[in-house]
Amino acid sequence: MMCPGMAKTNWKLASIDNSDVKRLEYGLGISALTATVLVARGFGSEGNARSFLESSLEALGDPFLLPDMEPAVDRLIHAVANDDHIVVLGHDDVDGMTATTIVFGALKEIGADVAYYIPDSPTEGLGLSRALVERFKKSGARLIVTVDCGISCKEEIAFARSLGIDTIVTDHHEPPEELPPAVAVVDAKRRDSTYGFRDLAGCGVAYRFIEAFTRRYRQIAGPPSLDGTLGMAALGSYADRVPLIGENRILVRNGMRQVLQKRAVPFAVLKSHVWVDEESTMSEVFSKIMPILGAARSDGGGNLGCELLLATEEDDAEEILTSLVMECERKKERARRALERVEEHLAAVGAGSGKSLVLVEEHLPNKTVGFCTSKVSESLGKPVVIISMRGEKGTGEARGPKGVDLVDALSANKRFLLGYGGHKQAAGFSIERSKVDEFKASFTDYLEGKLDPSVIRREIRIDGKLAADDLKIASLKALLCLEPFGEENRKPVFLLENLDAGVLKEIDGTMRLGEVTLCGGAMPADRSSNPGDKLSLVVSPFADGSVRSVEIVDWKSAK
Ligand SMILES: [Mn+2]
């Protein structure tokens, strides 16, 4: 586990050219602190820094450059014109729900014959199955549009085709070697993609698809308005933890504005439920909304998260929200208890010295496995797999730090698995009990030989140095133009070097430094340090989502 204050962590201070900082500061009219962070992160040129800060929607690439976008749009237009029954097939996480809402909502608005179906992942699995294809056939479907799933459903899509149902795949998962036999496979991660950005979320791909459709459909009839659609894409992208740079930053930053300005009924209801004020950061708003939507479970293909996002009457939205909030509380409790069990188990067996860890648990509650795996992987700083066994079958989740490729590691061990898929840093699989031991040995062996030690070395990257006087609310507020923070655009991290311990004041049980409150797990153990003692602190602003608090990430005694 993380041992704050121990010399184990390596502090890596970005090397910064001060003339770059000055040039950005004056050229763009931004604060010195903001300019420092931008330069530290490779946005030293004025043009790059400007487009990062502006995140203008015009900077998005041409959606028709996404692989297979032309046949996808053509088939969808044909389906609408022909009054084909269309089923949008989604995935029961926030990315999948928002993706479903984007495509279904737009088609519904123009009067298409459309339904959506989101399988309950614990009982129905992910993506398309033969049973679902048969069900859609019975309902008269002529076209299936998959969102946030479908790329690995080769056989099921072939089966649908044999029954006369076409499929358009829109997905963002790593494509398998052989693509499914769909009319179109729209995935920015395809090797032959000439689109400039590969890390869109499922809802990001769905958004670009509907944008492309709207451009063409405009030439035929009144297109869907796309009102609020960008806000949906922002919620789903943020929830799926995609890198918040490039096009994702553009989608999330602009979409967030739609949410905050309550551009649609669901945003208004969600925003008034989560308590935020003008000192709240964007991440704070997201982190309060996300678990509520994420708590929605699918039932018979329907999903309350989608229903909330599709609501046009405030009363309906309020009612759905109330039940989601209750479900969210129950889910949090389940996740907390599951994590407790995993941590007890981990304490008993130890984390080991290997480069990765596989834990096998009996019967963790549904949909808590991913959460527990993330938590354990974050705290150990190495790839972790947790397999939850249920009878003779197990569901596994794998999480790991940047630099590891878990899809590759699972693929190398696929002879032990029933199925697998996902992303480099977050993947899932299913396995038979009889194969678990062999898988465990082979998987850990594979990563032992493959994983570069630097991936699992704990390192804190620091953007710049600060003087204690620089920690002012106004200067921290100025950093908010770098939001949203998350994957690949982490919160700024600063070093306060050789700080006189006397400047830290404890008032009513909280540690303060000038205008800001200090908090975080890495608080110096000896709070009653004598004035004259020297400390070096690594700090990061917006600890609890407000501009007034700063997290102590790590510290060392400078004696
Ligand atoms: Mn996704």
If you consult CATH, what is the topology of the largest domain? inorganic pyrophosphatase (n-terminal core)
Summed over residues and divided by their number, the pLDDT gives a mean of 91
Low-confidence stretches at least 5 residues in length (pLDDT < 50)? 1-7
Number of strands: 21
Please list the strands of the largest sheet in the order they lie side by side: 15-16-20-21-19-18-17
Q: Considering DSSP H and I runs of 4 or more, what fraction of the residues is helical?
A: 40-55%
Form type: globular
Instruction: Give the distinct bound molecules.
Output: manganese (II) ion
The number of distinct structural domains comes to: 3
Rg (CA only): 24 Å
- Report the structural category: alpha/beta
Share of β-strand residues: 15-25%
Word description of this protein:
The chain has 20 helices and 21 strands. 41% of the residues lie in helices and 19% in strands. It is globular. It is α/β, with parallel strands linked by helices and 559 residues long. The N terminus is likely disordered. Helix 9 packs antiparallel against helix 10, helix 10 packs across helix 11 and helix 13 crosses helix 15. The protein has three domains: 122 residues, Beta Barrel (OB fold (Dihydrolipoamide Acetyltransferase, E2P)); 262 residues, inorganic pyrophosphatase (n-terminal core) (Alpha-Beta Complex); 107 residues, Roll (Diaminopimelate Epimerase, Chain A, domain 1). The strands form five sheets. Strands 15-16-20-21-19-18-17 form a seven-stranded mixed sheet. Strands 3-2-4-5-6 form a five-stranded parallel sheet, sandwiched between helices. Strand 20 and strand 21 form a beta hairpin. The structure holds manganese (II) ion.
